[in-house]
Amino acid sequence: MTDAPAVARKLDAIEAEMKSIGYWNPAPPDLMGEIARGKIQSFLDAPSFELWLQCVFLPRAREAVATETFPTTSQVGLMALRQYDYHSVVPEAQNLLRLLNEFDDLIVP
User: Fold this and answer.
1) How far apart are CA 54 and CA 25, in angstroms?
2) CA atoms within 13 A on the CB side of 91
3) In the prediction, which pLDDT does 1 show?
4) For a disulfide at 23, which of 18, 47, 58, 86, Cβ 3.0-4.6 Å?
5) What is the 3-state secondary structure (H, E, C) of the chain?
6) What are the φ and ψ backbone dihedral angles of 46, each rounded to 5 degrees?
7) pLDDT digits over 31-40, tens only?
8) Cα distances (Å, whole numbers) of residue 47 to 26, 39, 63, 109
9) Taking the alpha carbons of 82, 10, 49, 25 in that order, is the dihedral positive or negative?
10) Cα–Cα distance, 54 to 50 (Å, whole number)
């Protein structure tokens, strides 16, 4: 069973890390609206992976915590690996990458 308080703490840590490394947009676009209109199907369609994390992943993950309806799998860490450590290493994103992988571990114990 997924530990909702642990997931919530991890989401807070992910948000804090995004802010500390400058990956947080103070005025983000309405990506959830774009998803509803069918203009965005996945993180690949978002303007950036960071905006997808901020505007789609974090709100959906927080909703899962609130309702305790967790997915059976999570691959956000793998997505981050492809963004920040696949072809070239993005040094400032390494802690964020670690946090996202830890999130995956919490979802799939």
Assistant:
1) 8
2) 0
3) 82
4) 18
5) CCCHHHHHHHHHHHHHHHHHCCCCCCCCCCHHHHHHCCCCCCHHHCCCHHHHHHHHHHHHHHHHHHHCCCCCCCCHHHHHHHHHCCCCCCHHHHHHHHHHHHHHHHHCC
6) -70, 155
7) 999 999 999 9
8) 15, 11, 23, 31
9) negative
10) 6
Sign of CA dihedral 97, 99, 102, 104: negative
Give the side-chain half-sphere CA count within 13 A for 38.
0
Check: CB of residue 57 under 8 Å from CB of residue 11: no
* Contact assessment for residue 80 and residue 48, using Cβ atoms and an 8 Å cutoff: no
Q: pLDDT of 47-98, one tens digit each? A: 999 999 999 999 999 999 999 999 999 999 999 998 887 767 788 999 999 9
